[in-house]
Amino acid sequence: MSMRIGGLASGMDIDQLVSDLMKAERMPLDKLTQKKTFLEWQRDDYREMNKLMFDFDSLIFDGVGKQGTFIQKTISSSNPDAVSVRNINSVSDFSGSVEVHQLAKSATMRNRIPVTLEPDKLLSEQGVTGTQTFIIRAIKPNGELQTQTTNAKGETIEEGFKLTFDPSKETLNSIISKINEKSGVNAFFDDATNQISFTAKNTGNVVSPTDLPEIELVDVAGTFLKETLNFHVNNKQAEANGVGTIGQNADLTYNGLRITRSTNNININGFELTLKKETAAGESVSFSSSPDVDKILETVVKFVDKYNEMIEKMNSKVDEKRYRDYQPLTSEQKEAMSEKEIELWEERAKSGTLRGDSVLQNGLNQMRRDLYTVVEGLTGVSQLAEIGIKTSSNYLEKGKLIIDEDKLRKAISDDPNGVYKLFNGATSNSEGIVDRLRETLKGTMESIEKKAGKSSSTNQSFTIGRNLENIDDRISDFERRLLDIEDRYWRQFTAMEKAIQQSNQQSMFLMNQFGGGM
Protein backbone atom coordinates (compact mmCIF):
# COMPACT_ATOMS: atom_id res chain seq x y z
CA MET A 1 0.00 0.00 0.00
CA SER A 2 1.37 3.43 -0.94
CA MET A 3 1.86 6.28 1.54
CA ARG A 4 -1.29 8.39 1.83
CA ILE A 5 -1.15 12.19 2.14
CA GLY A 6 -4.49 13.70 3.09
CA GLY A 7 -4.88 17.24 1.70
CA LEU A 8 -1.98 19.05 3.47
CA ALA A 9 -0.99 20.89 0.33
CA SER A 10 -4.32 21.25 -1.47
CA GLY A 11 -6.49 21.85 1.58
CA MET A 12 -8.98 19.30 0.19
CA ASP A 13 -10.65 16.60 2.35
CA ILE A 14 -9.07 13.67 0.52
CA ASP A 15 -10.57 11.12 2.94
CA GLN A 16 -14.07 12.31 2.10
CA LEU A 17 -13.33 12.50 -1.63
CA VAL A 18 -12.02 8.93 -1.72
CA SER A 19 -14.95 7.77 0.43
CA ASP A 20 -17.44 9.37 -1.97
CA LEU A 21 -15.67 7.89 -4.99
CA MET A 22 -15.65 4.46 -3.37
CA LYS A 23 -19.41 4.68 -2.72
CA ALA A 24 -19.91 4.77 -6.47
CA GLU A 25 -17.43 1.96 -6.94
CA ARG A 26 -19.19 -0.14 -4.27
CA MET A 27 -22.62 0.03 -5.89
CA PRO A 28 -22.22 -3.27 -7.81
CA LEU A 29 -21.00 -4.91 -4.56
CA ASP A 30 -24.05 -3.59 -2.70
CA LYS A 31 -26.27 -5.11 -5.35
CA LEU A 32 -24.53 -8.47 -4.94
CA THR A 33 -24.97 -8.29 -1.16
CA GLN A 34 -28.65 -7.40 -1.59
CA LYS A 35 -29.12 -10.32 -3.97
CA LYS A 36 -27.48 -12.64 -1.44
CA THR A 37 -29.78 -11.39 1.33
CA PHE A 38 -32.85 -11.88 -0.85
CA LEU A 39 -31.79 -15.45 -1.70
CA GLU A 40 -31.35 -16.18 2.02
CA TRP A 41 -34.85 -14.87 2.70
CA GLN A 42 -36.20 -16.96 -0.17
CA ARG A 43 -34.40 -20.08 1.14
CA ASP A 44 -35.84 -19.55 4.62
CA ASP A 45 -39.38 -19.03 3.26
CA TYR A 46 -39.12 -22.24 1.22
CA ARG A 47 -38.06 -24.12 4.32
CA GLU A 48 -40.97 -22.62 6.26
CA MET A 49 -43.33 -24.01 3.61
CA ASN A 50 -41.69 -27.41 3.92
CA LYS A 51 -42.14 -27.35 7.69
CA LEU A 52 -45.84 -26.57 7.22
CA MET A 53 -46.22 -29.56 4.92
CA PHE A 54 -44.15 -31.81 7.18
CA ASP A 55 -46.31 -30.89 10.19
CA PHE A 56 -49.47 -31.58 8.19
CA ASP A 57 -48.09 -34.92 7.01
CA SER A 58 -47.30 -35.88 10.63
CA LEU A 59 -50.81 -34.90 11.73
CA ILE A 60 -52.29 -37.08 8.95
CA PHE A 61 -50.12 -40.04 9.96
CA ASP A 62 -51.06 -39.76 13.64
CA GLY A 63 -54.70 -38.90 13.00
CA VAL A 64 -56.95 -39.75 10.06
CA GLY A 65 -54.28 -42.12 8.69
CA LYS A 66 -54.67 -44.54 11.61
CA GLN A 67 -57.41 -47.11 11.91
CA GLY A 68 -57.27 -46.66 15.68
CA THR A 69 -58.72 -43.17 15.21
CA PHE A 70 -61.95 -44.57 13.76
CA ILE A 71 -62.43 -47.55 16.10
CA GLN A 72 -62.60 -45.43 19.25
CA LYS A 73 -65.73 -46.46 21.08
CA THR A 74 -67.89 -45.51 24.01
CA ILE A 75 -68.49 -48.66 26.04
CA SER A 76 -71.10 -49.16 28.76
CA SER A 77 -71.13 -51.95 31.35
CA SER A 78 -73.98 -52.72 33.76
CA ASN A 79 -71.41 -53.53 36.48
CA PRO A 80 -67.95 -52.08 35.68
CA ASP A 81 -66.75 -53.05 39.17
CA ALA A 82 -67.10 -56.71 38.16
CA VAL A 83 -66.31 -56.58 34.41
CA SER A 84 -64.73 -53.75 32.43
CA VAL A 85 -64.59 -53.72 28.63
CA ARG A 86 -62.01 -52.09 26.34
CA ASN A 87 -61.92 -51.96 22.58
CA ILE A 88 -58.63 -53.08 21.00
CA ASN A 89 -59.17 -53.26 17.24
CA SER A 90 -62.82 -54.09 16.69
CA VAL A 91 -64.21 -52.12 13.76
CA SER A 92 -67.80 -53.23 14.38
CA ASP A 93 -69.84 -52.45 17.47
CA PHE A 94 -70.23 -55.28 19.96
CA SER A 95 -72.37 -56.29 22.91
CA GLY A 96 -72.79 -59.26 25.21
CA SER A 97 -73.24 -60.57 28.74
CA VAL A 98 -70.84 -62.18 31.20
CA GLU A 99 -71.22 -64.18 34.40
CA VAL A 100 -68.00 -64.49 36.43
CA HIS A 101 -67.92 -67.74 38.41
CA GLN A 102 -64.24 -67.63 39.36
CA LEU A 103 -61.30 -65.24 38.85
CA ALA A 104 -57.92 -66.40 37.59
CA LYS A 105 -55.26 -66.42 40.32
CA SER A 106 -51.52 -66.93 40.45
CA ALA A 107 -49.84 -69.94 42.01
CA THR A 108 -47.85 -69.22 45.18
CA MET A 109 -45.43 -70.97 47.51
CA ARG A 110 -43.45 -69.96 50.55
CA ASN A 111 -40.58 -71.59 52.43
CA ARG A 112 -41.30 -74.29 54.98
CA ILE A 113 -39.53 -72.59 57.87
CA PRO A 114 -38.02 -69.11 58.28
CA VAL A 115 -34.50 -68.56 56.99
CA THR A 116 -31.63 -67.55 59.25
CA LEU A 117 -30.01 -65.29 56.66
CA GLU A 118 -29.38 -61.57 56.98
CA PRO A 119 -30.64 -60.10 53.69
CA ASP A 120 -27.77 -57.64 53.04
CA LYS A 121 -24.87 -59.78 54.26
CA LEU A 122 -22.74 -61.85 51.85
CA LEU A 123 -24.03 -65.44 51.65
CA SER A 124 -20.51 -66.85 52.01
CA GLU A 125 -20.32 -65.25 55.46
CA GLN A 126 -23.53 -67.06 56.46
CA GLY A 127 -22.57 -70.63 55.70
CA VAL A 128 -23.34 -70.83 51.97
CA THR A 129 -20.28 -72.26 50.20
CA GLY A 130 -19.37 -73.34 46.68
CA THR A 131 -20.85 -72.28 43.34
CA GLN A 132 -24.65 -72.49 43.39
CA THR A 133 -26.90 -73.11 40.38
CA PHE A 134 -30.68 -73.32 40.39
CA ILE A 135 -33.59 -73.20 37.92
CA ILE A 136 -37.04 -71.68 38.46
CA ARG A 137 -39.73 -72.77 36.02
CA ALA A 138 -43.09 -71.02 36.01
CA ILE A 139 -46.34 -71.00 34.06
CA LYS A 140 -46.23 -69.18 30.71
CA PRO A 141 -48.75 -66.53 29.61
CA ASN A 142 -50.50 -69.15 27.46
CA GLY A 143 -51.04 -71.41 30.48
CA GLU A 144 -48.28 -73.87 29.63
CA LEU A 145 -45.40 -74.69 31.96
CA GLN A 146 -41.74 -74.00 31.22
CA THR A 147 -40.13 -77.43 31.05
CA GLN A 148 -36.89 -79.18 30.27
CA THR A 149 -36.77 -80.05 26.56
CA THR A 150 -34.40 -81.61 24.03
CA ASN A 151 -33.49 -79.96 20.73
CA ALA A 152 -32.87 -81.64 17.35
CA LYS A 153 -29.22 -82.33 18.30
CA GLY A 154 -30.24 -84.18 21.41
CA GLU A 155 -29.04 -81.34 23.66
CA THR A 156 -30.98 -80.58 26.82
CA ILE A 157 -32.52 -77.13 26.93
CA GLU A 158 -33.50 -75.87 30.35
CA GLU A 159 -36.56 -73.69 29.88
CA GLY A 160 -37.03 -71.23 32.69
CA PHE A 161 -34.79 -68.96 34.73
CA LYS A 162 -31.32 -70.40 35.43
CA LEU A 163 -28.93 -68.66 37.81
CA THR A 164 -25.35 -69.56 38.70
CA PHE A 165 -23.72 -67.44 41.39
CA ASP A 166 -20.75 -67.15 43.73
CA PRO A 167 -21.90 -66.82 47.39
CA SER A 168 -18.90 -64.59 48.12
CA LYS A 169 -20.32 -61.98 45.74
CA GLU A 170 -24.06 -62.18 46.43
CA THR A 171 -26.52 -61.41 49.22
CA LEU A 172 -30.05 -62.72 49.70
CA ASN A 173 -31.44 -59.39 48.51
CA SER A 174 -29.28 -59.39 45.36
CA ILE A 175 -30.45 -62.95 44.50
CA ILE A 176 -34.10 -61.91 45.05
CA SER A 177 -33.55 -58.88 42.80
CA LYS A 178 -32.24 -61.09 39.97
CA ILE A 179 -35.15 -63.52 40.36
CA ASN A 180 -37.65 -60.66 40.15
CA GLU A 181 -35.94 -59.13 37.13
CA LYS A 182 -35.73 -62.17 34.85
CA SER A 183 -37.70 -65.14 36.17
CA GLY A 184 -41.39 -66.02 35.84
CA VAL A 185 -42.04 -65.41 39.55
CA ASN A 186 -42.07 -62.48 41.93
CA ALA A 187 -39.98 -63.14 45.05
CA PHE A 188 -40.59 -61.35 48.35
CA PHE A 189 -38.64 -61.48 51.61
CA ASP A 190 -40.47 -60.43 54.79
CA ASP A 191 -37.86 -59.34 57.31
CA ALA A 192 -40.49 -59.43 60.07
CA THR A 193 -41.03 -63.20 59.77
CA ASN A 194 -37.84 -64.11 57.83
CA GLN A 195 -39.96 -65.91 55.26
CA ILE A 196 -39.78 -65.83 51.47
CA SER A 197 -42.65 -66.22 49.00
CA PHE A 198 -42.71 -66.94 45.27
CA THR A 199 -45.76 -65.86 43.24
CA ALA A 200 -46.13 -66.75 39.57
CA LYS A 201 -46.21 -63.63 37.40
CA ASN A 202 -48.90 -65.25 35.23
CA THR A 203 -52.25 -66.47 36.46
CA GLY A 204 -53.91 -69.82 35.77
CA ASN A 205 -53.10 -73.47 36.35
CA VAL A 206 -51.77 -76.29 34.19
CA VAL A 207 -54.67 -78.18 32.68
CA SER A 208 -55.13 -81.90 33.49
CA PRO A 209 -54.29 -84.65 32.65
CA THR A 210 -50.67 -83.42 32.87
CA ASP A 211 -51.25 -82.32 36.47
CA LEU A 212 -47.98 -80.37 36.47
CA PRO A 213 -47.12 -77.66 39.01
CA GLU A 214 -47.24 -73.98 38.08
CA ILE A 215 -43.96 -73.23 39.87
CA GLU A 216 -41.07 -75.69 39.93
CA LEU A 217 -37.72 -75.22 41.71
CA VAL A 218 -34.61 -77.23 40.77
CA ASP A 219 -31.23 -77.16 42.52
CA VAL A 220 -28.71 -78.05 39.79
CA ALA A 221 -25.52 -77.45 41.78
CA GLY A 222 -25.70 -76.97 45.55
CA THR A 223 -28.86 -76.92 47.66
CA PHE A 224 -29.63 -73.19 47.84
CA LEU A 225 -33.39 -73.40 47.19
CA LYS A 226 -34.16 -76.66 49.01
CA GLU A 227 -31.98 -76.38 52.12
CA THR A 228 -30.75 -72.79 52.48
CA LEU A 229 -34.12 -71.21 51.68
CA ASN A 230 -36.19 -74.24 52.83
CA PHE A 231 -38.51 -74.51 49.79
CA HIS A 232 -40.51 -77.51 48.57
CA VAL A 233 -39.73 -78.56 44.98
CA ASN A 234 -42.97 -77.11 43.56
CA ASN A 235 -46.13 -75.28 44.52
CA LYS A 236 -48.32 -78.43 44.44
CA GLN A 237 -46.15 -80.07 47.09
CA ALA A 238 -46.11 -76.79 49.01
CA GLU A 239 -49.91 -76.62 48.78
CA ALA A 240 -50.21 -80.16 50.14
CA ASN A 241 -48.12 -79.04 53.15
CA GLY A 242 -50.04 -75.82 53.75
CA VAL A 243 -47.40 -73.43 52.42
CA GLY A 244 -48.58 -72.89 48.85
CA THR A 245 -51.56 -72.46 46.54
CA ILE A 246 -52.41 -73.88 43.12
CA GLY A 247 -52.95 -71.51 40.22
CA GLN A 248 -56.54 -70.91 39.25
CA ASN A 249 -58.16 -70.33 35.85
CA ALA A 250 -60.92 -67.82 35.25
CA ASP A 251 -64.32 -69.49 34.91
CA LEU A 252 -67.04 -67.50 33.17
CA THR A 253 -70.12 -67.72 31.02
CA TYR A 254 -69.96 -65.47 27.95
CA ASN A 255 -73.18 -65.08 25.96
CA GLY A 256 -74.44 -68.38 27.39
CA LEU A 257 -71.22 -70.34 26.72
CA ARG A 258 -69.23 -71.60 29.73
CA ILE A 259 -65.49 -71.03 29.14
CA THR A 260 -62.23 -70.98 31.11
CA ARG A 261 -59.14 -68.87 30.60
CA SER A 262 -55.77 -68.68 32.35
CA THR A 263 -56.03 -64.89 32.70
CA ASN A 264 -58.57 -62.31 33.80
CA ASN A 265 -57.90 -60.27 30.62
CA ILE A 266 -59.76 -62.00 27.82
CA ASN A 267 -59.65 -60.95 24.15
CA ILE A 268 -62.81 -61.68 22.16
CA ASN A 269 -63.35 -60.50 18.57
CA GLY A 270 -61.16 -57.42 18.90
CA PHE A 271 -62.21 -56.24 22.37
CA GLU A 272 -60.98 -57.10 25.85
CA LEU A 273 -62.92 -58.19 28.92
CA THR A 274 -61.23 -57.59 32.28
CA LEU A 275 -62.68 -59.69 35.07
CA LYS A 276 -62.45 -57.91 38.42
CA LYS A 277 -64.63 -59.90 40.81
CA GLU A 278 -67.04 -62.83 40.87
CA THR A 279 -70.70 -62.07 40.20
CA ALA A 280 -73.55 -63.32 42.33
CA ALA A 281 -75.21 -66.57 41.29
CA GLY A 282 -77.45 -65.93 38.31
CA GLU A 283 -76.21 -62.33 37.90
CA SER A 284 -74.83 -61.34 34.50
CA VAL A 285 -73.00 -58.19 33.46
CA SER A 286 -74.23 -56.77 30.16
CA PHE A 287 -72.15 -54.46 27.99
CA SER A 288 -72.36 -52.71 24.63
CA SER A 289 -70.36 -50.31 22.48
CA SER A 290 -71.01 -47.43 20.11
CA PRO A 291 -68.67 -45.19 18.11
CA ASP A 292 -67.03 -42.43 20.15
CA VAL A 293 -68.29 -39.83 17.72
CA ASP A 294 -66.85 -36.84 19.59
CA LYS A 295 -63.26 -38.15 19.56
CA ILE A 296 -63.39 -39.25 15.93
CA LEU A 297 -64.98 -35.93 14.93
CA GLU A 298 -62.27 -34.03 16.82
CA THR A 299 -59.53 -35.79 14.82
CA VAL A 300 -61.22 -35.09 11.47
CA VAL A 301 -61.75 -31.44 12.41
CA LYS A 302 -58.05 -31.13 13.33
CA PHE A 303 -57.19 -32.54 9.91
CA VAL A 304 -59.38 -29.95 8.15
CA ASP A 305 -58.14 -27.06 10.31
CA LYS A 306 -54.48 -27.96 9.72
CA TYR A 307 -55.07 -28.30 5.97
CA ASN A 308 -56.77 -24.89 5.88
CA GLU A 309 -53.95 -23.30 7.89
CA MET A 310 -51.34 -24.79 5.57
CA ILE A 311 -52.91 -23.80 2.25
CA GLU A 312 -53.72 -20.31 3.56
CA LYS A 313 -50.02 -19.69 4.27
CA MET A 314 -48.91 -21.32 1.04
CA ASN A 315 -51.40 -19.30 -1.03
CA SER A 316 -50.39 -16.10 0.74
CA LYS A 317 -46.76 -16.73 -0.23
CA VAL A 318 -47.59 -17.59 -3.84
CA ASP A 319 -49.78 -14.47 -4.19
CA GLU A 320 -47.63 -12.09 -2.11
CA LYS A 321 -46.76 -8.84 -3.88
CA ARG A 322 -43.13 -8.20 -4.82
CA TYR A 323 -41.98 -4.60 -4.11
CA ARG A 324 -38.97 -4.28 -6.39
CA ASP A 325 -38.26 -0.72 -5.26
CA TYR A 326 -37.63 -2.05 -1.77
CA GLN A 327 -34.32 -3.88 -1.94
CA PRO A 328 -32.58 -5.35 1.14
CA LEU A 329 -30.86 -2.61 3.15
CA THR A 330 -27.09 -2.32 3.26
CA SER A 331 -25.27 -1.78 6.58
CA GLU A 332 -24.72 1.90 5.76
CA GLN A 333 -28.39 2.39 4.92
CA LYS A 334 -29.44 0.79 8.22
CA GLU A 335 -27.14 3.12 10.16
CA ALA A 336 -29.02 6.08 8.75
CA MET A 337 -32.48 4.72 9.71
CA SER A 338 -34.40 4.12 12.92
CA GLU A 339 -35.39 0.60 14.03
CA LYS A 340 -39.03 1.27 13.08
CA GLU A 341 -38.02 2.51 9.64
CA ILE A 342 -35.85 -0.58 9.12
CA GLU A 343 -38.72 -2.83 10.21
CA LEU A 344 -41.22 -1.21 7.82
CA TRP A 345 -38.72 -1.24 4.94
CA GLU A 346 -37.77 -4.91 5.39
CA GLU A 347 -41.42 -5.92 5.67
CA ARG A 348 -41.82 -4.86 2.05
CA ALA A 349 -38.35 -5.98 0.97
CA LYS A 350 -39.08 -9.53 2.18
CA SER A 351 -42.44 -9.63 0.44
CA GLY A 352 -42.88 -11.76 -2.67
CA THR A 353 -39.91 -14.13 -2.24
CA LEU A 354 -42.09 -17.04 -3.45
CA ARG A 355 -44.54 -15.15 -5.64
CA GLY A 356 -45.89 -17.34 -8.45
CA ASP A 357 -43.68 -20.29 -7.42
CA SER A 358 -44.59 -23.21 -9.70
CA VAL A 359 -43.68 -25.96 -7.21
CA LEU A 360 -45.98 -24.57 -4.52
CA GLN A 361 -48.74 -23.79 -7.00
CA ASN A 362 -48.62 -27.29 -8.50
CA GLY A 363 -48.64 -28.81 -5.01
CA LEU A 364 -51.71 -26.78 -4.03
CA ASN A 365 -53.56 -27.74 -7.21
CA GLN A 366 -52.70 -31.43 -6.80
CA MET A 367 -53.86 -31.47 -3.16
CA ARG A 368 -57.23 -30.09 -4.22
CA ARG A 369 -57.53 -32.92 -6.76
CA ASP A 370 -56.44 -35.45 -4.14
CA LEU A 371 -59.24 -34.34 -1.83
CA TYR A 372 -62.05 -34.42 -4.36
CA THR A 373 -61.23 -37.29 -6.69
CA VAL A 374 -63.50 -40.27 -6.01
CA VAL A 375 -61.89 -43.04 -3.96
CA GLU A 376 -62.22 -46.20 -6.04
CA GLY A 377 -63.48 -49.52 -4.71
CA LEU A 378 -65.79 -48.18 -1.99
CA THR A 379 -69.37 -49.32 -1.71
CA GLY A 380 -70.32 -46.61 0.79
CA VAL A 381 -69.15 -43.00 0.84
CA SER A 382 -66.45 -42.29 -1.74
CA GLN A 383 -66.07 -38.47 -1.58
CA LEU A 384 -65.52 -35.96 1.21
CA ALA A 385 -68.65 -34.04 0.30
CA GLU A 386 -70.72 -37.10 1.22
CA ILE A 387 -69.57 -36.84 4.85
CA GLY A 388 -70.08 -33.07 5.10
CA ILE A 389 -66.66 -31.71 4.03
CA LYS A 390 -66.58 -29.46 0.98
CA THR A 391 -64.76 -26.48 -0.52
CA SER A 392 -65.72 -22.98 0.56
CA SER A 393 -67.87 -21.15 -2.00
CA ASN A 394 -65.80 -18.01 -1.38
CA TYR A 395 -63.24 -18.03 -4.20
CA LEU A 396 -60.98 -15.69 -2.21
CA GLU A 397 -60.35 -18.53 0.28
CA LYS A 398 -58.69 -20.54 -2.53
CA GLY A 399 -59.86 -24.05 -1.75
CA LYS A 400 -60.34 -23.93 2.00
CA LEU A 401 -62.48 -26.71 3.43
CA ILE A 402 -65.64 -26.15 5.44
CA ILE A 403 -67.41 -28.73 7.61
CA ASP A 404 -71.10 -29.47 7.98
CA GLU A 405 -70.66 -30.84 11.51
CA ASP A 406 -74.12 -32.42 11.73
CA LYS A 407 -73.57 -34.33 8.47
CA LEU A 408 -70.07 -35.40 9.49
CA ARG A 409 -71.26 -36.50 12.93
CA LYS A 410 -74.01 -38.61 11.37
CA ALA A 411 -71.56 -40.23 8.91
CA ILE A 412 -69.25 -41.17 11.76
CA SER A 413 -72.09 -42.50 13.88
CA ASP A 414 -73.59 -44.54 11.03
CA ASP A 415 -70.40 -46.00 9.59
CA PRO A 416 -67.06 -45.04 11.17
CA ASN A 417 -65.32 -47.79 9.20
CA GLY A 418 -66.68 -46.29 5.96
CA VAL A 419 -65.17 -42.92 6.92
CA TYR A 420 -61.88 -44.69 7.68
CA LYS A 421 -61.91 -46.34 4.23
CA LEU A 422 -62.62 -42.99 2.56
CA PHE A 423 -59.41 -41.64 4.04
CA ASN A 424 -57.32 -44.81 3.78
CA GLY A 425 -58.71 -46.91 0.92
CA ALA A 426 -60.86 -50.02 0.76
CA THR A 427 -57.89 -52.41 0.93
CA SER A 428 -54.15 -52.27 1.53
CA ASN A 429 -53.69 -52.08 -2.25
CA SER A 430 -56.08 -49.19 -2.86
CA GLU A 431 -55.39 -45.49 -2.33
CA GLY A 432 -57.53 -43.33 -0.10
CA ILE A 433 -57.37 -39.58 0.41
CA VAL A 434 -54.55 -39.98 2.94
CA ASP A 435 -52.32 -41.92 0.55
CA ARG A 436 -52.84 -39.41 -2.24
CA LEU A 437 -52.24 -36.39 -0.03
CA ARG A 438 -49.09 -37.81 1.57
CA GLU A 439 -47.68 -38.70 -1.85
CA THR A 440 -48.28 -35.13 -3.08
CA LEU A 441 -46.78 -33.66 0.07
CA LYS A 442 -43.73 -35.88 -0.29
CA GLY A 443 -43.16 -34.90 -3.92
CA THR A 444 -43.64 -31.19 -3.21
CA MET A 445 -41.29 -31.25 -0.22
CA GLU A 446 -38.64 -33.10 -2.23
CA SER A 447 -38.84 -30.50 -5.02
CA ILE A 448 -38.52 -27.65 -2.54
CA GLU A 449 -35.62 -29.39 -0.83
CA LYS A 450 -33.79 -29.50 -4.15
CA LYS A 451 -34.22 -25.74 -4.34
CA ALA A 452 -33.73 -24.71 -0.72
CA GLY A 453 -32.30 -27.71 1.11
CA LYS A 454 -32.85 -28.11 4.84
CA SER A 455 -31.01 -26.87 7.93
CA SER A 456 -28.54 -29.77 7.82
CA SER A 457 -27.82 -29.45 4.07
CA THR A 458 -24.56 -28.18 2.65
CA ASN A 459 -24.85 -25.31 0.15
CA GLN A 460 -23.57 -27.45 -2.70
CA SER A 461 -26.52 -29.86 -2.33
CA PHE A 462 -29.31 -27.43 -3.36
CA THR A 463 -29.84 -24.75 -6.00
CA ILE A 464 -30.11 -21.64 -3.82
CA GLY A 465 -27.10 -22.79 -1.80
CA ARG A 466 -24.97 -23.07 -4.93
CA ASN A 467 -26.11 -19.60 -6.01
CA LEU A 468 -25.19 -18.23 -2.59
CA GLU A 469 -21.71 -19.72 -2.81
CA ASN A 470 -21.30 -18.27 -6.28
CA ILE A 471 -22.30 -14.82 -4.99
CA ASP A 472 -19.90 -15.18 -2.04
CA ASP A 473 -17.07 -15.87 -4.50
CA ARG A 474 -18.02 -12.84 -6.58
CA ILE A 475 -18.23 -10.67 -3.45
CA SER A 476 -14.76 -11.79 -2.35
CA ASP A 477 -13.33 -11.03 -5.81
CA PHE A 478 -15.03 -7.62 -5.91
CA GLU A 479 -13.82 -6.69 -2.42
CA ARG A 480 -10.24 -7.40 -3.48
CA ARG A 481 -10.80 -5.28 -6.58
CA LEU A 482 -12.18 -2.43 -4.45
CA LEU A 483 -9.05 -2.46 -2.31
CA ASP A 484 -6.98 -2.03 -5.46
CA ILE A 485 -9.22 0.79 -6.71
CA GLU A 486 -9.12 2.60 -3.35
CA ASP A 487 -5.34 2.27 -3.30
CA ARG A 488 -5.18 3.69 -6.86
CA TYR A 489 -7.29 6.72 -5.84
CA TRP A 490 -5.00 7.39 -2.92
CA ARG A 491 -1.90 7.12 -5.13
CA GLN A 492 -3.45 9.61 -7.55
CA PHE A 493 -4.40 12.08 -4.83
CA THR A 494 -1.01 11.63 -3.14
CA ALA A 495 0.71 12.40 -6.45
CA MET A 496 -1.50 15.47 -6.80
CA GLU A 497 -0.62 16.62 -3.26
CA LYS A 498 3.08 16.18 -3.96
CA ALA A 499 2.77 18.14 -7.21
CA ILE A 500 0.91 20.98 -5.47
CA GLN A 501 3.41 20.98 -2.65
CA GLN A 502 6.29 21.14 -5.16
CA SER A 503 4.56 23.97 -7.05
CA ASN A 504 4.03 25.88 -3.81
CA GLN A 505 7.70 25.47 -2.93
CA GLN A 506 8.73 26.79 -6.36
CA SER A 507 6.39 29.75 -6.02
CA MET A 508 7.80 30.53 -2.63
CA PHE A 509 11.35 30.31 -3.99
CA LEU A 510 10.56 32.74 -6.81
CA MET A 511 8.86 35.17 -4.46
CA ASN A 512 11.83 35.09 -2.18
CA GLN A 513 14.16 35.72 -5.15
CA PHE A 514 12.13 38.71 -6.41
CA GLY A 515 11.79 40.09 -2.93
CA GLY A 516 15.53 39.78 -2.27
CA GLY A 517 16.45 41.84 -5.35
CA MET A 518 14.34 44.90 -4.49
From TrEMBL:
The keyword RNA-binding does not apply. Homopentamer. Its main location: secreted. Required for morphogenesis and for the elongation of the flagellar filament by facilitating polymerization of the flagellin monomers at the tip of growing filament. Forms a capping structure, which prevents flagellin subunits (transported through the central channel of the flagellum) from leaking out without polymerization at the distal end. This is Flagellar hook-associated protein 2. It is found in: Secreted; Bacterial flagellum. PANTHER family: FLAGELLAR CAP/ASSEMBLY PROTEIN FLID, FLAGELLAR HOOK-ASSOCIATED PROTEIN 2. It holds the Pfam family FliD_C. Residues 10-106 form the Flagellar hook-associated protein 2 N-terminal domain. Belongs to the FliD family. Keywords: Bacterial flagellum, Cell projection, Cilium, Coiled coil, Flagellum, Secreted. It comes from the Bacteria. NCBIfam families: PRK07737.1. Residues 247-505 form the Flagellar hook-associated protein 2 C-terminal domain.
